[in-house]
Amino acid sequence: MNIKEILNHINPSMLNYTEWVSVGMALKYEGLTAFDWEVWSSSDPRHKDGECFTKWNSFHGASSPVTVGTLIEYAKRQGFDFSKDEERELGWDDEIKRDDLVIIDKTWLESKELEEPKEWDPIKDLIKYLETLFESTENVGYVTETWQKEDKYLPTKGCWDRTAGQLIDELNKCNGDIGSVIGDYKEEAGAWIRFNPLDGQGCKNSNVTDFRYALVESDSMELDKQNAIIRELELPVACLVFSGKKSIHAIVKIDAGNYDEYRKRVNYLYDVCQKNGLQIDIQNKNPSRLSRMPGIMRNGHKQFLIDTNIGKVTWEEWFEWIEGVNDDLPVPESLEDFFENLPELSQPLIHGVLRQGHKMLLAGPSKAGKSYSLIQLCIAIGEGSKWLVWQCEMGKVLYVNLELDRASCLHRFKDVYNALNLKPEHLFNIDIWNLRGKAIPMDKLAPKLIRRAQKKNYIAIVIDPIYKIITGDENSADQMAHFTNQFDKVCTELGCAVIYCHHHSKGAQGSKRSVDRASGSGVFARDPDALLDLIGLEIDDKVEEQQQNRAAATVIAQTIKKCNFEYFEENVGQDDVLSRKAMMNHANFALNKLQTDDLLKEIGRVESGVKRKTAWRIEGTLREFASFDPVNLWFDYPIHKIDDSMLLKDLEPEGEKTPWQKAIEKRKSPEQKIEDRKLAIKTAYEACNTGGKGVTIKELAEYMGVAKSTIWNRLKEYKTYKKHSEEGKDTLIILE
What we know:
The strands form eight sheets. A nine-stranded mixed β-sheet has the order 19-18-20-21-15-22-23-24-25, with helices on both faces. It contains 24 helices and 28 strands. It folds into five domains: 3-87; 122-325, Alpha-Beta Plaits (2-Layer Sandwich); 355-536, 3-Layer(aba) Sandwich (Rossmann fold), CATH 3.40.50.300; 539-612, no CATH class; 670-735, Orthogonal Bundle (Arc Repressor Mutant, subunit A). By secondary structure, it is of the alpha+beta class. Helices cover 37% and strands 18% of the residues. The longest helix has 23 residues, at 541-563. Mean pLDDT is 85; it is low at 85-98.
């Protein structure tokens, strides 16, 4: 039973406060949530809403934690009988759990009948047994003498003073009298032999010289079923012996290097046997254990050697086979069976980029706005809208936030919605799992994520960023392969896409291919089905000036349209809206003084905003779709926008030049600086000269965001201007 099923048999109203708290502690220790505790507690009339969530945070673990055992005890105390659980009828919601060590379908198992040999040579049986299990120089322990307890014959410690070679030699010379070699025995009891070699000093575990074999025995099943299961499991059996009564003794190859390894391997062996229906005697675990000796009579029945060296050849081969049978890998398929009836491809999630159930990596340098871009993507999936240039399918998406505090994360989502001018009509499609400060390695996070997401029907899970949950060294290929396999597990178990982001390696990236920029092992480039890489572009003065021109022209057009729509429709052409100068001339006719003053302030604001924007290019490496042309973007906080102006098309990515080299290139001569200041004054003058009669020093200073004294200094450099003074007004300037 799982823990939630056990809770169904515990009535919270029958527990005192301490016991109720213990239930919460057990649930937290076993990996459940405060919500699970709250739901279970809500049936108690004493329960207060939200009390579980408050109390949950006070559970910090202990050296002796409260576990599921406490829940089982409470359920038993309230009358539930766990022994009857296996007999209960399955419900529709019950989970049938698969055991990864079960390889035998008992309903299809055919019994393997066991027959006593009609022509039997006891001496040959025992010699073959000794030759199979021992080297000629190894001491063998065996027992023929017994003592009686009630109606049972029990073995004594026996003998261990002769080697296998000595015993074989004497058996070959005994003329069929086996008792003359090993000693007489009671036929009512039979005889025993130890299957591991001894040191000749005793018969305890400490006297075992090689942990070579283990005993598998069952005395509670039919012989033919024992025989069938042992063979079906392909146990690496060295000798298979009939005990002369109701069990078969399988001497199984263990080949352990020491006692600790022997114990672990025997435990694994017994676990496999029991889970496949072989009800074995678990008291036979010790390496010095006695087994039935072949070639002996017991109560009128033969203790005989059934077979030797059956099943897998070695322990390692058998272990790999058991693990391989249960590795959950699909069987190979013939292309002929499917060539004319191919399965349907997974539906696209991001059209032209990523299919549902696949993986995508977004890589980029620090401060590229990767998190904002992933939030844009979550919104695009939730609303079924476009992400940058790609249409997204609508569905539920989970954003796993590993870096931001909860409040900042929620505000970012709203800021991005607002910046996109997108109406939030499907907020229910977006879930956020805030794990800042609670991140754990991905191999431990994956099962918790799968359990929480199993019934949510997510079509995508976005993990941001992965450096918080990396398992192992990011430069190690094998460790990163193990790490990225966890994403495959999430995709497979939930049937959804996994999208994650990672940072670039240190240094300039412009000379590298997009697939080589992500930090760490090359696994990051090879693993995802879609790799999108963000690289920064170097903006030159010309592009920045063009951007400012366009931004100002757009603001002016919007203002004219809003304040004087009739003028805009009749006089503003399509080319005009691309030129600040042309639009400023229209503004001089279409707007009044107050409207123009407000417009100038808005122009100054948007031009300053242009300087804050950064330029980026997305390049992609795709497995399922044809490659796409690089996509140029502006990161205009808080969203990435497509460069519709095509200004970024010819810009180069950030190259290999050092900061001091870039600074030298950007350094201007004194003459260039004077010309730039003249151009700035001229631009400001044209923007402010709405009436055509000149501009005051105050207006120029406000437009340019500088002091009046700075305007005077720049006018001196301009030289060709006229100054007029009017009473009660600031100095009026006319440029010539």
